[in-house]
Amino acid sequence: MADRHDSRNFGSRHHYIFPDMLTSEQLMPLTILLAPIFSTLAILLVLVLDVRHSPKSLWPVKGNVLAMMCCTVVNWGSLVFYFFYPEIFAIINAPVFFALSMVQVFFYGFIFHITRLDAGERFPRYHYYLPAILTLALLAVSFITPFEGQVEIIKAKGKCTNEDYRLFYMVSNSKIPVRTLYSVVYLSLSFYRLRNYRKRVRDYSANEEKGHLRWLSVYLILTTGLTPMPIFKLLLTERLSVITSSVMPTYYLLFTFQYAYLCYYVVKEKYVLMTDKEVNDSHKSTAITPTATTDTDTPQLKKNQLTREVFDQFMATQRPYLNADLKITDLVAELNINRTYLSAFINSEYGVNFSSYINQCRLKEYERLQTLPEKQGYSPQELALMAGFGSYKSLLRFSKEHNIA
């Protein structure tokens, strides 16, 4: 009876045969597995409803997150079949492998689009090739491996019980190492891309709250911390029942929080997205053309092309800085110049980048509003929004970074 009881243990290495009725010991791990599935489905539903009402320019961004969540649901759901229905898992093994590999690809696709600043930059198709090749390899190995042998390997939970099926064992059980490798590679690419984006976005967007993508840094750090967990679980397969009852619920909870966190910022559109039209227009020369560039690719400004007096008058009368989502391309159309020239002009005349210059204007407006008698009843938060800041926190952060009391 003891041996039979052990064979029904959720984390046992022995063959697992799903009984007609779940025991109390099996009900707990099943509940733990179902929790992240339903929570991810809820997040997926929110994203679907949001995408339906989003402009087409945001579809590549939100579509990648949507596809990422679909793959995540498949991955979580496959664990139920892996532990309780190995015969079914053997049938869906290859699609699960593909979904597991594509999670990181779709996430990097999301990162790629929200940090894209060059007109000719397109998401490389070769990112899809390796997951497809790995999936085809598993399909080929499954084709030459008897179905009973596949089920036997799956039931063994990480142990090769028959040398005749070692090839299937090696390919099928490479999921976690492949996933971990993908996570490391794409996290590195994401951090690198985010770093380069931040260097350039200050010359494009004056919305510091959206443009800096601090929330994305938090998400990437959280993802980095969770990356070793699958390997940790793999190394301690013999104690899987212990992990499931203690560490794994926390692991699933953190993953759910991670996805909900990402969903919130995607739905709230807390990022600055440059559309194809804006990218192309910003690279066109209009009434004013910059002269030859220096070694640092900064145009040499010609005198009398755009004077500080003319620009100051434009800013004072039009007050474009009151728009919290102001981008440099918004001024390009008004001034009839190109983006590169305007960015270089601001750097040359005022000694700061576009974002800092606009926030300086907003800070002056905030200080002016504080002196108006009719604004005395307004809170600092309300005045900050009136001055063009995205939030009062943005005002405080800008003041602190520039040592402004």
From TrEMBL:
GO MF, one annotated term: DNA-binding transcription factor activity
InterPro entries for the chain: HTH_AraC (IPR018060)
Membrane found in the keyword field: yes
Keywords: Membrane, Transmembrane, Transmembrane helix
Organism the protein comes from: Breznakibacter xylanolyticus
Transmembrane segments: 27-51, 63-85, 91-114, 126-145, 176-194, 215-236, 248-267
Protein's name according to its UniProt entry: Helix-turn-helix protein
HTH araC/xylS-type domain: residues covered: 312-405
Keyword Ribosomal protein: no
